[in-house]
């Protein structure tokens, strides 16, 4: 099978992101959190290192959610009826998202704390 040109591969990849945005509620919520982080990065004037940390965990949560959704869709395709084993696979896949989200909150608190506490000391 011949590989498609790079621009078509990129178009397909971005279509996947847009499909996630359109149909997946959790991805929409996580993307909203990403937008809030973008706002805070500029509003609080984060350092380059802090910006990189926030962007890394934000994109990691989004990417993990995409992988979780892909696993769930494959499971539904392979076994449309209820199956305890499929439920286990879906649960551990969702667990990966939860762990990444917890890590992102921990890092977010650690990064933003010094900016917010400095901001509050002005009052």
From TrEMBL:
<keyword id="KW-1003">Cell membrane</keyword>
<keyword id="KW-0808">Transferase</keyword>
<dbReference type="InterPro" id="IPR033717">
    <property type="entry name" value="UDPK"/>
</dbReference>
<dbReference type="InterPro" id="IPR036945">
    <property type="entry name" value="DAGK_sf"/>
</dbReference>
<dbReference type="InterPro" id="IPR000829">
    <property type="entry name" value="DAGK"/>
</dbReference>
<keyword id="KW-0443">Lipid metabolism</keyword>
<keyword id="KW-0812">Transmembrane</keyword>
<keyword id="KW-0594">Phospholipid biosynthesis</keyword>
<feature type="transmembrane region" description="Helical">
    <location>
        <begin position="27"/>
        <end position="46"/>
    </location>
</feature>
<feature type="transmembrane region" description="Helical">
    <location>
        <begin position="52"/>
        <end position="71"/>
    </location>
</feature>
<keyword id="KW-0067">ATP-binding</keyword>
<keyword id="KW-0418">Kinase</keyword>
<protein>
    <submittedName>
        <fullName>Diacylglycerol kinase family protein</fullName>
        <ecNumber>2.7.1.-</ecNumber>
    </submittedName>
</protein>
<keyword id="KW-0472">Membrane</keyword>
<keyword id="KW-1133">Transmembrane helix</keyword>
<comment type="similarity">
    <text>Belongs to the bacterial diacylglycerol kinase family.</text>
</comment>
<dbReference type="GO" id="GO:0016301">
    <property type="term" value="F:kinase activity"/>
</dbReference>
<keyword id="KW-0547">Nucleotide-binding</keyword>
<keyword id="KW-0444">Lipid biosynthesis</keyword>
<keyword id="KW-1208">Phospholipid metabolism</keyword>
<feature type="transmembrane region" description="Helical">
    <location>
        <begin position="92"/>
        <end position="113"/>
    </location>
</feature>
<dbReference type="Pfam" id="PF01219">
    <property type="entry name" value="DAGK_prokar"/>
</dbReference>
């Amino acid at each position: 099978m011949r590989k498609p040109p790079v621009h078509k591969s990129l178009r397909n990849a971005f279509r996947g992101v847009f499909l996630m945005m359109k149909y997946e509620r959790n991805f929409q919520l996580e993307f909203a959190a990403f937008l809030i982080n973008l706002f805070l990065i500029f509003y609080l004037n984060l350092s380059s290192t802090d910006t990189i940390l926030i962007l890394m965990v934000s994109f990691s949560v989004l990417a993990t959610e995409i992988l979780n959704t892909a696993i769930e869709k494959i499971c539904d395709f392979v076994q449309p009826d209820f199956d305890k084993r499929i439920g286990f696979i879906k649960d551990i896949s969702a667990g990966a998202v939860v762990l990444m989200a917890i890590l992102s909150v921990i890092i977010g608190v650690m990064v933003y704390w010094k900016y917010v506490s400095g901001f509050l000391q002005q009052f």
